[in-house]
Amino acid sequence: MNYQRMMIKDLQDLYQAESEQGRQLPQLASRANNGALRAALEQHAAETQQQALRLRQMLERIGETPGGEGEVPSGVRGLISETFQKAEQVQDPDIRDLVLIAAAQKMEHYEIACYGTARAMAHTAGMDEAARLLQTSPDEEESTDKRLTDIAMPIHKQAAQREPAFAQ
Ligand SMILES: [Fe+2]
Asked: Which of 18, 67, 73, 111 could form a disulfide with 52 if both were Cys (CB 3.0 to 4.6 A apart)?
């Protein structure tokens, strides 16, 4: 695999990751107890569909199919299925919300890392417009990440306070 193929494969993987996340986020949102969390996950689901569209257009513009081998990266698939399993096992709604937040934040960080590599490659290849577009989505991921941290903090406190031996 040469440099150009690596870049295209990375963009295809990212497209698959965003598409899968866009499909699964509404399901994760429906399991949230906290209203602000549900709203944040639903809003990010809509944003994620735009992110996938951005990648699709970028790939089509350079004459590539967005689907690649049609595979969702196994790390993404694993993270999502693990989250559904955990959320299923948890009885406490606050703890379940924290499981959902942790998963969503892992996903955002995964994507931010992938966009960083893709952006560096596009920049190096002189694809300035693509490099610029590859900055928009991780900016959105970062603001979702911050919003989720803000939502999580009071839930952490609430959950810990119910376990006095554990809470400080
Ligand atoms: Fe995303």
From this structure: 18
